[in-house]
Amino acid sequence: MGKKVAKANRGIPSKAEAFTEWYPFIVEAAELVDKRYPIKGMDVWRPYGWKTMRLIDGLTHAEMERTDHEEVNFPLLIPEVLLEKENALVARLKRAREEGVDPDELRDEEEEAGFKKEVYWVRHAGENELDVPMFLRPTSETAMYTMFPLWIRSHADLPLKVYQTVNTFRYETKQTRSFIRVREIHFFEAHTAHVDEADATRQIEQDLDIVDRLMHHLCLPVLKAKRPVWDTFPGAWYTIGIDAIMPNGRTLQVASCHHYRDQWAKAFDITYETKEATQAHVHQTTYGMSERLLGAVVGMHGDDSGLIMPPAIAPIQVVVCPLVRKNATVDTVAVSHDVADRLRQAGFRVKVDDRDLHPGQKYYDWEIKGVPLRLEVGPRDVEQGSVFAARRTGGKSPIPMDGLESGVRETLDAIAKELRVRAHAHVDEVVQPLPAWKDGSLETPVEDGRIYELAFDGSDADAERLERATGMGFLGDATEPYPEPRPCHATGEPTTRRVLMSRSY
Amino acid sequence: MGKKVAKANRGIPSKAEAFTEWYPFIVEAAELVDKRYPIKGMDVWRPYGWKTMRLIDGLTHAEMERTDHEEVNFPLLIPEVLLEKENALVARLKRAREEGVDPDELRDEEEEAGFKKEVYWVRHAGENELDVPMFLRPTSETAMYTMFPLWIRSHADLPLKVYQTVNTFRYETKQTRSFIRVREIHFFEAHTAHVDEADATRQIEQDLDIVDRLMHHLCLPVLKAKRPVWDTFPGAWYTIGIDAIMPNGRTLQVASCHHYRDQWAKAFDITYETKEATQAHVHQTTYGMSERLLGAVVGMHGDDSGLIMPPAIAPIQVVVCPLVRKNATVDTVAVSHDVADRLRQAGFRVKVDDRDLHPGQKYYDWEIKGVPLRLEVGPRDVEQGSVFAARRTGGKSPIPMDGLESGVRETLDAIAKELRVRAHAHVDEVVQPLPAWKDGSLETPVEDGRIYELAFDGSDADAERLERATGMGFLGDATEPYPEPRPCHATGEPTTRRVLMSRSY
Question: Is the ipTM of this complex over 0.90?
Answer without folding.
Answer: yes
